[in-house]
Specification:
This protein is of the alpha/beta class. The chain has helices at residues 9-16, 25-34, 53-62, 75-84, 111-123, 136-144, 155-159, 163-182, 198-201, 214-236; strands spanning 3-7, 39-43, 67-71, 88-91, 128-132, 149-153, 186-190, 209-212. Helix 2 runs parallel beside helix 3. The longest helix has 23 residues, at 214-236. The structure holds pyridoxine-5'-phosphate. Pyridoxine-5'-phosphate is lined by residues 7, 9, 43, 70, 90, 92, 100-101, 131, 151, 190-193, 211-215.
């Protein structure tokens, strides 16, 4: 059975919209675990647009399953990771202007820089995953860096508008997952997955974990809204 890692960045997005204390991603993490998730995922961005350093430290204290820290491959972030010691670090590309992580890390083109960060994290006893596009060259490059896991970026599959395009993306994910597994790396997948498009991917046996954020938080707003309105109505009437 595949594992589910829940990305709670967007609980923090909602909090940052008002700059206050609610909703608190730390409280959300407790509920996520109570509901049966196998891990929590957060992305500490350079611009701190959602998750803050404070969240990361508290999450490390309270998460009882697994904490996966997504971060850019740079020394300042590696320093934070080495002091917090999450259960896993996933290296992702980061561009300031992007709304979300738009593509995988180009491991083949940045080999030395990524290797340096992987080595720093490994020396600190932290396993490392690389977030990469479904491309066999990237898988081979990741393998040469001795990483423990790869996370396959499913964004193009999720955004495919035509069946033919979805087929091609599905095939690319299946092929790269098989290759990564064969090379001895653990395989996870994520980005843009929702209640409709994830099912098909579960046919790929090599993918043992899905990391899903936006669709779960979006659904939580929808299925929780009615109760929230009823509560407020009861208070004022
Ligand atoms: N995995 C990685 C490495 C990510 O960067 C993200 C987005 O932050 C996700 C999974 C989750 O993507 P989504 O929010 O679209 O489910």
């Amino acid at each position: 059975m595949a594992r589910l890692g829940v990305n709670i960045d967007h609980v923090a997005t909602l909090r940052q919209a008002r700059g206050g204390r609610e909703p608190d991603p730390v409280a959300a993490a407790v509920l996520v675990e109570l509901a049966g998730a196998d891990g929590l995922v957060v992305h500490l961005r350079e611009d701190r647009r959602h998750i803050q350093n404070r969240d990361l430290s508290l999450l490390r204290e309270i998460v009882q399953t697994k904490l996966d820290l997504e971060m850019a491959a740079d020394e300042a972030m590696a320093k934070i990771a080495l002091s917090v010691k999450p259960h896993l670090v996933t290296l992702v590309p980061e561009r300031r202007q992007e709304l979300t992580t738009e593509g995988g890390l180009d491991v083949a083109a940045q080999r030395d820089r990524v290797q340096h960060i992987v080595d720093l994290l490994h020396d600190g006893g932290i396993p490392v995953s690389l977030f990469i596009d479904p491309d066999t060259n990237q898988i081979k490059a990741a393998h040469r860096l001795s990483v423990d896991y790869v996370e396959i970026h499913t964004g193009r599959y999720a955004n495919a508008r035509r069946l033919k395009e979805e087929e091609a993306e599905f095939e690319a994910i299946a092929q790269t997952a098989k290759l990564a597994y064969k090379l001895g790396m653990g395989v996870s997948a994520g980005h843009g997955l929702n209640y409709r498009n994830v099912k098909r991917l579960t046919q790929i046996q090599e993918i043992v974990e899905y990391n899903i954020g936006h669709s779960i938080i979006a659904r939580a707003v929808m299925i929780g809204l009615e109760a929230a309105v009823r509560e407020m109505k009861a208070i004022i009437s």
